[in-house]
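Q: What structure does this chain adopt?
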Amino acid sequence: MEAPAVEPLQHAAAALTELVDEAAPPSTRPSDIPEAFLCPITFALMDDPVVMMDGMTYERRAIERWLSKGHTTSPLTGAELQSTVLIPNNLVRSQIREYRAQQ
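A:
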């Protein structure tokens, strides 16, 4: 498998940085939130977690924004996505609900 070119990765990194800058700063979130409950784009607790073809779970609004900007690659790996279908991650959603109920 051929490694992705550096330039597309740099472009993806810049776009991802832009999305993160628009999100709540990490200092505003509690440090006890399990990492699996945080969107890797916004670093915020997810409300509507979805799985992408890269196998990662994202907050729906964040990944939709990424895709709406014309990206066809994973925001984390830079690899070309075979599909942009978003699949609800019901397990993580349920775990987040349980976590919130305990807070």
